[in-house]
Amino acid sequence: QVQLVESGGGLVQAGGSLRLSCVASGRTASMYAMGWFRQAPGKEREFVAAISWSGSSIDYADSVKGRFTISRDNAKNTLYMEMNSLNAEDTATYYCAAKRGRTFVAVTTLRDYDYWGQGTQVTVSS
Q1: CB contact at 8 A, 117 and 22
Q2: 15, 45, 55, 107: least buried by Cβ within 10 Å?
């Protein structure tokens, strides 16, 4: 009922920046929390950043705090993440996720999300 499509990934040098976008379509009228997760080769998918429907509640993984900024534009059904000061450890496939139902806080647990995008690859070279 909800489809998510990420974009904005690519190859960037260490210290550089990228901006990821996630466009939601389908039945998007309900309030829901959204988030970004990533999965590097040989590792499990991990939480990166999350935001409530209103944007008033935001949370980040310690590894990206101060470098990444999550935001959303509900009028455009779009989730964003600005990534700065990228390093090799940020190399991963990044996934957009959405939780159905009204949620008032940022959700950081992978298993609580209902919809997922196909992922966009971010590669940081040294």
Answers
A1: yes
A2: 15
